[in-house]
Write a sequence for this structure.
């Protein structure tokens, strides 16, 4: 089985619609793909309706969190999307995205970048607006060559010149809320230093003690040594280890299935989840 547990659609900051995402996942030879848009479950219905035969969909979300001033992302899998407390927190984060993005546009304009809110809104479409949409606008203007190049201290990285804060969950609260909704939590790209400051390993240990299920180890933003270090840390803490593409369509260079999750790990994730179940396409097998 080929299993990719981290992908985004136009419901947040990807460029594939949810339907295109699942079709492209099948074309890429995946058996399982997770839809993990930022702080939203808005792509679920379309992805499920378009699910090709032989492909299983894991419903999820990537939750925006902050700990001691450091931003981090928490992947939540197979939770009940209608559980009210978690739904309310996701809504608070989404509601804060637009004024936050408008603030960053204003900061960029003050730095001499001719970006406009109308341009960013066009790029975001109906998606949950975020920094990748602003970065795409900067690419269109020739300010930076790629979306990734906008995520530096000069521009949009945490603490960068054009950065603005938004409402974000405490990760301990995120774990509690996801667990209460029957879901499973995995710390996304925990050592992606190219994106900015990362929380220390002591914080990962504290999150593990609070019920964190796993960490994303095999990811394009982790080099070989980092992956080995994280795998050892996960072993010490009793955490599951996942691998994922963090696919965003044409917005980033990563490809669906670029990194994958071991079928036994996927099976354990599905066994721990009680809020929702994987959705098999016709002829698919939801559980490992």
């Amino acid at each position: 089985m080929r299993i990719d547990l981290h992908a985004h659609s136009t419901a947040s900051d990807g460029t594939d619609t949810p339907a295109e995402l699942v079709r492209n996942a099948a074309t890429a030879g995946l058996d399982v793909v997770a839809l993990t848009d930022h702080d939203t479950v808005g792509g679920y219905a379309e992805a499920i309706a378009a699910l090709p035969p032989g492909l299983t969909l894991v419903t999820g979300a990537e939750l925006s969190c902050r700990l001691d001033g450091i931003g981090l992302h928490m992947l939540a899998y197979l939770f009940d999307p209608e559980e009210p407390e978690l739904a309310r927190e996701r809504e608070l984060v989404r509601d804060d995205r637009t004024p936050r993005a408008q603030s960053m546009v204003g900061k960029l304009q003050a730095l001499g970048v001719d970006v406009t809110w109308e341009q960013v809104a066009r790029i975001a479409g109906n998606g949950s607006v975020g920094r990748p949409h602003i970065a795409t606008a900067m690419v269109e203007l020739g300010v930076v060559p790629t979306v990734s190049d906008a995520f530096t201290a000069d521009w949009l990285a945490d603490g960068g010149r054009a950065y603005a804060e938004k409402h974000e969950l405490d990760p301990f609260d995120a774990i509690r809320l996801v667990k209460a909704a029957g879901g499973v939590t995995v710390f996304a790209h925990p050592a992606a230093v190219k994106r900015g400051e990362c929380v220390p390993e002591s914080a990962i240990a504290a999150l593990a003690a609070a019920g964190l299920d796993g960490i994303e180890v095999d990811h394009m933003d982790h080099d070989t040594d980092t992956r080995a270090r994280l795998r050892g840390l996960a072993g010490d803490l009793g955490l599951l280890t996942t691998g994922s593409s963090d696919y965003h369509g044409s917005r980033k260079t990563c490809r669906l299935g670029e990194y994958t999750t071991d079928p036994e790990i996927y099976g354990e994730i599905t066994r721990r989840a009680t809020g929702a179940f994987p959705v098999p396409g016709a002829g698919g097998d939801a559980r490992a």
